């Protein structure tokens, strides 16, 4: 009798669960909310959820990209409160993997955006939306060689070592330079995605390497700090600087010549298409396993063109 009652209760729980789950919330969790890049993701996610009343969307993230434990807690909290789906930009490819696995086991679809999880996580999420970071790194490297030539020093100002986007973006930038030139790599230096840290690191690099020909800032806060250091050191036009991402500071640096270019991802598209993918999955459709959200090399020549305006923020 006890076994029968237990079975009935379990069955009623399983039957009732979908009705509860389908009523609810898509949790968008990013690496940090303290960045225009991630706020642009929020805009895209908000646009995707608008126009329908069945589901809601929440947007959250830690105070800094290095606060990996905080992001992990946010994912676990979302699972515990029974969200219908998660859009996640993982700050660490390994640390977030168990939480994504837990979501999968709970029947919660997950769309990973921006940075990949570790290979061991394959099959625990439904779709991955990102810039092809390796292609973006190679594009920046190609432009660097075109501007500085094949000999001399190029510094690399990176952000958080080991993050999926960093591995592709910075790794492929460095590999391309090594394979196609005799340029000496200075760095990489890791700012932990802190603008002030990047500013100080770049100031030191410029002082220690007066013969530096080029410098690459690999994400938004790093590139902003790099640009400010170049301005403060009076090196505008003397060092070929290429940034990454497209906030107002970086746009201004492109316009005034501090940066020859900035590589801009489709951050809005990550949020919009990520939420749409979850809505599709919840609605019984399949999402594409991989969605390329693109990158545009924004220069002074094309900054006013539609291709740049569509990705700048």
TrEMBL record:
The keyword Signal applies. It is found in: Cell envelope. Its main location: other. GO terms for cellular component: cell envelope. Residues 1-23 form the signal peptide. InterPro entries: Peripla_BP_I, SBP_2_dom. One of its GO terms (molecular function) is carbohydrate binding. Belongs to the bacterial solute-binding protein 2 family. This is LacI family transcriptional regulator. It comes from Phyllobacterium zundukense. The lineage of its organism: Bacteria, Pseudomonadati, Pseudomonadota, Alphaproteobacteria, Hyphomicrobiales.
